[in-house]
From TrEMBL:
Keyword Cell division recorded: no
Classification lineage: Bacteria, Bacillati, Actinomycetota, Coriobacteriia, Coriobacteriales
Domain of life: Bacteria
Bias kind Basic and acidic residues: ranges: 1-21
Protein name as it appears in the record: Large ribosomal subunit protein uL24
Family statement: Belongs to the universal ribosomal protein uL24 family.
Classification via SUPFAM superfamilies: Translation proteins SH3-like domain
Amino acid sequence: MSMSIKKGDKVEVLSGKDRGKQGTVLRALPKEGKVVVEGVAVVKKAVKPNQTNQQGGIVSQEAAIDASNVNHVCPECGKRTRVGHQKDGKNKLRVCKKCGHTF
Protein backbone atom coordinates (compact mmCIF):
# COMPACT_ATOMS: atom_id res chain seq x y z
CA MET A 1 0.00 0.00 0.00
CA SER A 2 1.53 3.30 -1.02
CA MET A 3 0.80 6.42 1.00
CA SER A 4 0.99 9.98 -0.28
CA ILE A 5 1.35 11.28 3.28
CA LYS A 6 4.89 12.00 4.40
CA LYS A 7 6.55 13.22 7.59
CA GLY A 8 6.15 16.98 7.98
CA ASP A 9 2.93 17.26 5.93
CA LYS A 10 0.06 19.29 7.37
CA VAL A 11 -3.11 17.18 7.58
CA GLU A 12 -6.68 17.41 8.88
CA VAL A 13 -8.46 14.56 10.66
CA LEU A 14 -11.64 13.40 8.90
CA SER A 15 -13.17 11.08 11.50
CA GLY A 16 -12.98 10.04 15.12
CA LYS A 17 -12.92 11.99 18.36
CA ASP A 18 -10.40 14.50 16.95
CA ARG A 19 -12.38 15.23 13.77
CA GLY A 20 -11.57 18.64 12.28
CA LYS A 21 -8.23 19.05 14.07
CA GLN A 22 -5.19 19.96 12.01
CA GLY A 23 -1.62 19.01 12.78
CA THR A 24 1.76 18.07 11.38
CA VAL A 25 2.66 14.44 10.67
CA LEU A 26 5.35 13.39 13.15
CA ARG A 27 5.78 9.83 11.79
CA ALA A 28 4.46 7.98 8.75
CA LEU A 29 4.15 4.20 9.03
CA PRO A 30 3.50 3.04 5.44
CA LYS A 31 3.70 -0.70 6.16
CA GLU A 32 0.84 -0.41 8.68
CA GLY A 33 -0.94 2.37 6.73
CA LYS A 34 -0.88 4.65 9.78
CA VAL A 35 0.36 8.12 10.69
CA VAL A 36 1.17 9.88 13.97
CA VAL A 37 -0.16 13.45 13.98
CA GLU A 38 0.90 16.18 16.42
CA GLY A 39 -1.80 16.86 19.05
CA VAL A 40 -4.20 14.18 17.72
CA ALA A 41 -5.19 10.88 19.38
CA VAL A 42 -3.33 11.71 22.60
CA VAL A 43 -3.22 8.76 25.00
CA LYS A 44 -1.82 8.30 28.52
CA LYS A 45 0.92 5.72 28.90
CA ALA A 46 2.58 4.36 32.06
CA VAL A 47 6.36 4.56 31.81
CA LYS A 48 8.90 2.86 34.06
CA PRO A 49 11.81 4.93 35.37
CA ASN A 50 14.85 4.70 33.08
CA GLN A 51 18.02 6.60 32.19
CA THR A 52 16.25 9.36 30.24
CA ASN A 53 13.14 9.55 32.45
CA GLN A 54 14.35 9.26 36.06
CA GLN A 55 10.89 9.83 37.56
CA GLY A 56 8.76 7.49 35.48
CA GLY A 57 4.98 7.84 35.85
CA ILE A 58 2.17 8.56 33.39
CA VAL A 59 3.09 10.28 30.11
CA SER A 60 0.83 11.70 27.38
CA GLN A 61 1.80 10.86 23.82
CA GLU A 62 0.24 10.71 20.35
CA ALA A 63 -1.02 7.35 19.09
CA ALA A 64 -1.01 6.25 15.46
CA ILE A 65 -4.23 6.70 13.47
CA ASP A 66 -5.19 5.20 10.13
CA ALA A 67 -3.93 7.16 7.13
CA SER A 68 -7.36 6.93 5.49
CA ASN A 69 -8.75 9.11 8.30
CA VAL A 70 -6.59 12.12 7.41
CA ASN A 71 -6.44 14.41 4.39
CA HIS A 72 -3.76 16.84 3.22
CA VAL A 73 -4.06 20.57 3.84
CA CYS A 74 -2.56 22.49 0.93
CA PRO A 75 0.16 24.92 2.10
CA GLU A 76 -0.74 27.34 -0.72
CA CYS A 77 -4.57 27.60 -0.58
CA GLY A 78 -5.02 26.29 3.00
CA LYS A 79 -7.89 23.99 2.00
CA ARG A 80 -8.28 20.29 2.71
CA THR A 81 -7.48 18.49 -0.53
CA ARG A 82 -6.72 15.21 -2.20
CA VAL A 83 -3.29 14.73 -3.74
CA GLY A 84 -2.63 14.22 -7.43
CA HIS A 85 0.63 13.06 -8.95
CA GLN A 86 2.55 14.60 -11.81
CA LYS A 87 5.73 13.53 -13.57
CA ASP A 88 8.55 16.01 -13.95
CA GLY A 89 11.24 14.13 -15.86
CA LYS A 90 12.29 11.32 -13.53
CA ASN A 91 10.72 12.92 -10.44
CA LYS A 92 7.16 12.29 -9.31
CA LEU A 93 5.56 15.39 -7.76
CA ARG A 94 2.59 15.63 -5.41
CA VAL A 95 0.04 18.21 -6.57
CA CYS A 96 -2.95 19.89 -4.86
CA LYS A 97 -6.13 18.94 -6.77
CA LYS A 98 -7.76 22.30 -5.93
CA CYS A 99 -5.10 24.91 -6.76
CA GLY A 100 -2.39 22.93 -8.61
CA HIS A 101 0.39 23.80 -6.12
CA THR A 102 3.17 21.20 -5.90
CA PHE A 103 4.45 19.98 -2.53
